[in-house]
Write a structure and sequence with these properties.
TIM Barrel; eight-stranded parallel β-barrel; alpha/beta; binds zinc ion; 2 domains; Double Stranded RNA Binding Domain
């Protein structure tokens, strides 16, 4: 019988502390859905009451299968838990779980909180008791636990014990500064497990020594059964424990897989590379090539002795099969592995094709060419869908764009203010008929988008409710020139959203490709005939 280990994702709370990361409400909704699908047990959404965005995020039930957690502080000294405004915001939040954070290092209680050690324990006890009495699951994050334990083990343990006795489901030991090494994490967790049983004990590790994953595993070996971490190790300073690394370790490494079970299924595991890259696209960051399991280089072998050995038997140089995490072997794309990978991706998008279909090799070649030009399909399912369907000869030619023109003008208006105008003209041909539309917009891409969707003849009614919900641009070196990659996310009346990609040295042209892909995708999805 395997023991269950629970994964607690804090990308949207602790991960949001990363410099340069600012999640919008829409981002949070999208990421929470992605995590839910992946199968993590808990999704911590943020800090309701601390800022309007998080309050809004918790104002409605997000309809997740994972447990949705709100984060906040235990009650302050001097007020009762039921009169503490911070605790009230947590109780108002639509969440299954409340994660309270409390100091567990006596030095911090004195200097940062300025209250007595006993008052801090009261805060823990009363906050958790109140949350549990309101039918919520409660977790205590013991901040600076390991440093606190080294300074005053009795007090650190008293914090943990108080939380457990008050009814906390989990007591989480946080290595807040990230400076503790695995052996010490293991030793201290073993000690704590004598007071708080392992099936109530969690670990929250930071990566300041590059050991966040190792520290999480050390805590599990010492008895803990709950791990907090983030997607791609996002987080303050050097980041948090990387769930994208931990998940395949638990699934694929016999040392763990033989003893523990997590909520992520094999099917979800096979989407891990896509999840990781989609998340980077959303943050507008270049995915890290050398990321364990999911990096583009994780299964890349340079031609030579290694490559020929890999081709004879992949196990010679690969510690796990790349397709198990949805990654690709990069030696020769036309190997069987490359094929099964593309077949799996197509199946995910609802396209069935026989493994021996000759068009599959052509699709692989096309994907390779496109990727060399700078296209990235991991974050743009809709464009990948269209690319595959067009190689299979299944994309109807609904319309043709004869030409477009975009003007941007900066000038003084009648009031003497400096203003920028953008307008676009598009000439499309539908059923042999020329249609010319012009539109103004907030910026050239918006003008082009409006002009393009203004009149598509008999297809117009199908795209009336289509709207652009996100737009991301990345400029990178491709060969000798700078190349621009544009990702457009579109939404329609059903609430469904899809992402398309365009690549060109010219940002308007790249945007145009992504915009037209979005329209064609919408028409195809509706089953519209040309
Ligand atoms: Zn943290």
């Amino acid at each position: 019988m395997k023991e269950r280990v629970y994964l607690f994702d804090t990308t949207l709370r602790d991960g949001a502390q990363t410099t340069g990361v600012d999640f919008s409400l829409h981002d949070k909704v999208v990421i929470a859905k992605m995590l839910d699908k992946l199968g993590v047990d808990y999704i911590e959404g943020g800090y309701p009451g601390a800022n309007p965005l998080d309050t809004a995020f918790f104002a409605k039930d997000q309809g997740l299968s994972s447990r949705f957690a709100a984060f906040g502080m235990t009650k302050r000294a001097g007020v009762s838990a039921s009169n503490d405004p911070g605790v009230a915001s947590l109780l108002d939040a639509k969440s299954d779980t409340i994660t309270f954070v409390a100091k567990s290092w006596d030095f911090h209680v004195h200097t940062a909180l300025g209250c007595t050690l006993e008052e801090n324990l009261d805060g823990i006890r009363e906050s958790i008791t109140l949350a549990v009495s309101r039918g919520r699951e409660a977790i205590l994050d013991c901040e600076h636990f390991f440093d606190g334990y080294k300074a005053n083990p009795d007090y650190a343990l008293a914090c943990a014990r108080t939380a457990l006795e008050a009814g906390a489901r989990w007591v989480v030991l946080c290595d807040t500064n990230g400076g503790t090494l695995p052996e010490e994490i293991g030793r201290i967790t073993t000690e704590v497990a004598k007071t708080v049983p392992g099936d109530h004990l969690g670990i929250h590790a930071h990566d300041d020594t590059g050991n966040a994953v190792a520290n999480s595993l050390a805590a599990i070996r010492a008895g803990a059964r709950h791990i907090q971490g983030t997607l791609n190790g996002l987080g303050e300073r050097c980041g948090n424990a990387n769930l994208v690394t931990l998940i395949p370790i638990f699934k694929l490494k016999p040392e763990l897989a033989d003893h523990y079970e997590i909520g992520v299924g094999d099917g979800a595991l096979a989407t891990l590379t896509q999840v990781s890259r989609t998340f980077d696209e959303l943050l507008n960051r270049q995915p890290r090539r050398q990321a364990p399991f999911v990096g583009a280089a994780a299964f890349a072998t340079k031609a030579g002795i290694h490559a020929s050995a890999v081709l004879k038997d992949p196990r010679t140089y690969e510690h796990v099969p790349p397709e198990s995490v949805g990654n690709r072997r990069q030696v020769l794309v036309s190997t069987q592995a490359g094929k099964s990978n593309v077949v799996a991706e197509l199946e995910r998008l609802g396209i069935t094709i026989a493994r021996d279909d000759p068009r599959l090799a052509r699709l692989l070649e096309t994907v390779k060419d496109k990727e060399a030009q700078g296209y990235a399909y991991e974050g743009a399912d809709a464009s990948f869908f269209l690319l595959a369907q067009s190689v299979l000869g299944r994309v109807p030619e609904y319309f043709k764009v004869e030409r477009f023109k975009v003007n941007v003008e900066r000038r003084h208006n009648a009031m003497g203010d400096l203003v920028t105008f953008s307008e676009a003209t598009v000439k499309v041909v539908v059923d042999g008929e020329e249609l010319i539309s012009a539109a103004e917009g907030d910026g050239p891409v918006n003008a082009l988008d409006r002009a393009l969707r203004k009149d598509l003849g008999r297809y117009q009614r199908h795209i009336e409710k289509l709207r652009l919900s996100d737009f991301r641009v990345r400029i990178f070196e491709g060969g000798t020139d700078a190349v621009t990659r544009v990702l457009v996310e579109s939404t329609d009346e059903t609430g469904e959203s899809w992402t398309t990609v365009g690549v060109s040295p010219n940002i308007i042209d790249a945007s145009f490709q992504a915009l037209t892909d979005s329209i064609v995708y919408k028409l195809m999805r509706e089953g519209v005939r040309a």
